[in-house]
Design brief:
- The protein starts with a strand and ends with a helix.
- It is of the alpha/beta class.
- Helix 10 crosses helix 11.
- It contains 12 helices and 9 strands.
- Strand 7, helix 8 and strand 8 form a beta-alpha-beta unit.
- Strands 1, 2, 3, 4, 5, 6, 7, 8 and 9 form a 9-stranded parallel β-sheet that branches.
């Protein structure tokens, strides 16, 4: 079984209403592909493209929620909406769980009611930024590098109270440390190792250790330029290098996968869609025990759900 902590298929379905979630040829994540790969839980991110005007972003977020329920949950009886461990436990053998997440708080502006509304609609995890600054925090590409704002601290406090994940992927380093200081349930849904590939989106060893000490989670993603700084094509072996490094830092129980499928244009050789997860699984079994592989693929993210 696989628990994938991040994909952007909702954005693709919002951009092109003609696409089929079942088997859309241009999608990395499809229902048929998930079934073939053995994906048991897939997180679906609400990501608002930067081109959407500020005043329209919350409306677009709601449109993506509607797409999630109308075109994924309601359209396919085998797909069930899940948010908690109890929901996942209730899945039948042939059923898969779909989890709703928010990538970046741009959609809520400075309005906590908007965030509360998304939480009531079932959002299980909230990423605070997407690379750039917003009312909550600075992102990884903002040169200023500021941390959480006063409003951002209110957001994290609300997520603590609601028992939802606070996702640090995309945050500036200062904002990361502010979150680590106050979040009860921090994760990095789709971030890799800075020491192996020095990209601003990747985590330093100190950040990885801090997440481990907080008993948070790190989802290794499949973005080629987050996996290797070399000009050659990224390989599945590069994914394993990042996994090995996090384990070496003590994170064997705190690491999984957050593919970032459908949020990327380039892919890892041999790992171009969810359907090809089997190739990664086969490589994992060559290096780790069956029990370890089970935890990396599913058990670790499942165990770290707040409820």
């Amino acid at each position: 079984m696989i628990f994938d902590a991040h994909c952007d298929v909702l954005m693709k379905l919002w951009q092109d209403r003609s696409l089929s979630f079942y088997d859309g040829a241009s999608l990395h994540v499809t229902l048929s592909g998930m079934a073939e790969a053995g994906v048991k839980v897939q997180c679906f991110a609400i990501y608002i493209p930067e081109t959407v005007p500020e005043e329209a972003r919350f409306t677009v977020a709601l449109e993506m929620v509607d797409i999630f329920f109308a075109r994924i949950i309601d359209a396919f009886p085998s797909v069930k909406f899940v948010r908690t461990r109890r929901d996942i436990d209730a899945l039948k053998k042939e059923e898969v769980g779909a989890m709703l997440t928010l990538e970046g708080c741009d959609a809520i502006g400075v309005n906590l009611v908007k965030l509360k509304t998304l939480l009531r609609l079932g959002v299980a995890s909230v990423g605070l930024t997407w690379n750039f600054p917003n009312a909550v925090a600075d992102g990884a590409w903002e040169k200023r590098g500021a941390g959480l704002t006063a409003f951002g601290r209110q957001v994290v406090a609300l997520l603590n109270e609601a028992k939802r994940w606070v996702d640090v992927s995309h945050l500036s380093e200062k904002a990361f440390w502010d979150v680590i200081e106050m979040a009860r349930f921090p994760i990095a849904s789709h971030s890799n190792v800075h020491r192996l590939c020095p990209h601003p989106r990747n985590l330093t060893d100190e950040q990885i250790k801090a997440l481990i000490e907080k008993d948070g989670m790190i989802g290794i993603n499949f973005v080629p330029y987050f996996l290797t700084a070399k000009k050659s094509e990224a390989m599945i072996a590069d994914v394993l290098r990042h996994l090995d490094h996090i384990c070496a830092l003590g994170g064997e129980n705190n690491v999984g996968f957050g593919s970032d499928f459908d949020g990327i244009t380039e892919t890892v050789a041999g790992l171009g869609t969810v359907r090809e997860y089997a190739r990664l699984v086969n490589e994992l079994y060559k290096h780790y025990s069956a029990e370890q592989v089970s935890r990396f693929l599913f058990g670790n993210f499942y165990a770290h759900l707040p409820e």
